[in-house]
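Listing S7. Sequence submitted for prediction.
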Amino acid sequence: MDDNTRKTLELFVEKAGKLAKYVSEMAFYGGLMGVFRHSEEDEWQIHPAIEGFILTFRMFIHKRDGIALYRVNIHGQPVRPELLDLQGMSESWHGRVNRAYKWIADALVITPENLKVYNESLTRWKILETFVYGEYAHAEPTHNETINQWRRDPDLFGKLRFEFVSVLQFMFGQILEVAAASKHELDLHMTGQNNIN
């Protein structure tokens, strides 16, 4: 395992741990879904644990930090995450990471039947991307305009918000799986057993 690989794994484990901390802070509300269910819209939008969770979560869908489990290019096409190409990792690690990536990729292309906006079907990725980049992590104009458009229909917006939180929960579970596998790889490296599969 080279130094860059080790740093990437350490960053992944650290940020996954940070996500877990935000989720534990939301335990009073019943986790992510509980904050959504038990908060008024204005409270939910600004709940500090939600904001912190999403800002950290963004690293797992953004190229910049090298720990993305899923990302798309500027044309909206899925791109194989760099994380999957780390060298010197065990077959077990590669298997777990590939499985997590596949499950996430398969889940994000699903178009929920009851969610259409102006006769356009929305994929889970579109919903996730719009909330993250239009509301929380950025105020990217196109996504921000879309969020504001969705808000005009409270029933639709509630369904979209529910889908958004569901996707976050699902992806969080996969992030924790990869973090556990990565921590195991780091432990093997520290003990000199990193050639064990």
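Caption to Listing S7: primary sequence and predicted structure tokens for the chain studied. DSSP finds eight helices and four strands in the chain. The mean pLDDT is 84.
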